[in-house]
Design goal:
Elements (H helix, E strand, L loop, with lengths): L10 H14 L25 H8 L4 H8 L3 H11 L2 E2 L6 H10 L1 H4 L4 E4 L10 H13 L5 E8 L14 E6 L3 H9 L5 E4 L19 E4 L1 H7 L7 E6 L7 H11 L8 E6 L4 H14 L5 E6 L5 H5 L1 H5 L7 E6 L9 H4 L2 H8 L5 E4 L2 E6 L3 E4 H24 L7 H35 L3
Parallel strand pairs: 1-2, 2-3, 3-4, 4-5, 5-6, 6-7, 7-8, 8-9, 9-10, 10-11
Antiparallel strand pairs: 11-12, 12-13
Helix pairs in contact: 1-3, 2-4, 3-4, 5-7, 10-11
Amino acid sequence: MQSTPSFTHNAAYTEIASSMERKSGADCPETHADESQDRPSAHGVLSIPSELIHHILKYLGNTDLVNTAIVCPSFRFISQRVLYRDVKPTEHMIIPCLRCFASYPHLASCARTLILADATRYYDVFSNYFNLLRRALLNASSLTDLTILLDGPYARYLHGCPFRLRSLTTTLDWDRDFIKLITEQTELRNAMFGGQFVKDVVLPRDTLTKLTRVSASPLVLAAVVPNRKIKEVELCLLQHALFKDDILNTASNILSYSTGPLTALQLIARLSDTPSALAALKAIAKNLPRLNSFAFYSSDVVSQELLEAFPEFLSGFECLKSLTLMSRNKADALHDKDFTATLASRWHTSCPSLQSVSLAGSIWLHNTRHGWVTLAGLERLLRERQGLLLSRQKYRTKADPKTISLEEVKNNLEEDKEDAEQGNQMEQQMIVLRDSLLQFGGP
């Protein structure tokens, strides 16, 4: 998959960008009043469709894009769209970036992705900083993906912004001003709410109607998930006291009220002792038995004792297809390849629907003919199958139809049917694995 280059502000780039603006006349509003000058002329390289030029320029670095932008108005317009599409300033360049957006609306309008760290951690900011932030965001009319890691009750500075976000990651306080903000974002589909929850704040039922994926604390999830079509949830429990069966029972029971229905759950937690951890996990299976994907990330040691007891947890699921287990400690049982080599097959006995198991450093997939194989093993099987199909096709092409008996034709049809079923299963497994990696990442 090809990706567009991310725009990262730094001192060198800022100087080059300023030079580009001066040389191209971008700092003069009248040069942008008539967009017809940005349309390619019908001769030479400019006869190429602008979409194709845009795709080509995505492979250039920032400095090369700046140089390309001063070639002509057409290249300037396209280069700016590439440069300012994904804006990810470093912490020391947040204010220069916001000043750029506030001063040049035509550049701010190119942005689709904007990632802003909490500038209050690096600067002694006053109200003028928040006014600058608001002016910049008011110009970012095409923004669809916003990350704003600004701790505190500052959501009011985002009210009335013209963009309609599809993805929002924020640590703004979950207060009444924040509720008004997300009420305005009618296209929001993916959200990470990391701010402090303020009591007695009610989320209207007619908001977040298109939200399908959310990451938050239990209190925020209790306000967001019920009666909404949430399909994927990330639940963060980073204190030992939170990873208990009563808390997981309450949280998973709340998640069961999603009308999505909920199909994927990612749990980030710090493990307690094995009996308590197992009891907490079993509460999830009890309330959410129809999950398709489950991922668990631990910042502590995952013991052999817990993994040995996992069948008790997995037996509570009815249609679980993908299981992902990760931990930070590289010396724990999850990173012991000899121990984990047989886990997938043993867990499959308790959860027959399981098709994919991703552990720290290894991925296992279930095949009806070959059993549990690694990802590398599945790729080898796919290559062998392709070679077999080619050789079979070559043989049938050369064979004289008069010498082929009805019995042989029947056997060929049965072989083709069996191979087609195997191929479909492998393709489905790759899809399941891909979806799991897209949702939760992988080893």
